[in-house]
Amino acid sequence: MNTEIEGGKETERVKASVGKETAGSAKNLPLSCTSFSLDPSLCFFPQYAAQRICTPLFIINSAYDSWQINNSLVPESVDPQHVWDTCKKDINKCSPSQIQTLQDFRLTFLEALKELGPSISRGYFISSCHFNNGIEVESYWSDNNSPTIPNKKIAEAVGD
Fold first, then answer.
1. Between 20 and 30 A from 125 (CA), which of 71, 141, 142, 147?
2. Long-range contacts of 47-56 (CB under 8 A, 24+ apart)
3. What averages of pLDDT result for each successive group of 10 residues across the chain (160 residues)?
4. Are the C-beta atoms of residues 5 and 82 closer than 8 Å to each other?
5. Domain map (residue ranges) of the chain
6. pTM of the model
7. What is the distance between the alpha carbons of residues 160 and 32, in angstroms, rounded to a whole number?
């Protein structure tokens, strides 16, 4: 996923630095991914590696959350005028165009999931929790009012 505001290239810089910082460790990545990639370091990123994982995989992620907005979508380096500061602190204070950017980011993520294709050994739960650690709270997984995936709490769906 490479969606950012202002045409920023922060994500590409992060990917490039991962390649440099992890030099030598690519040999430990799955051959099923590295043999299909011109740049083995891309296999550190789920959008490149997940489609080649053969064991059962259940992806749990938010479509966008505070960490993604602050570090991937709108890092400081692409918002030198601090236009996004208010929105980044409180999603309820985002302008209509900022909300649209968030929705576009979400759609890009969902499209990346679709590219994985159908599989009986893969599933996913994508939350709309703006707080990065919301899904880490145990009650989110199993309380009576926790989200369900057709009639199963998240904990049950992952267990299946």
1. 71
2. 47/1, 47/112, 47/115, 50/116, 50/122, 51/115, 51/116, 51/117, 53/122, 54/121, 55/121, 56/121, 56/122
3. 50 60 72 80 80 83 84 86 93 93 90 85 78 66 76 78
4. no
5. 5-159
6. 0.70
7. 25
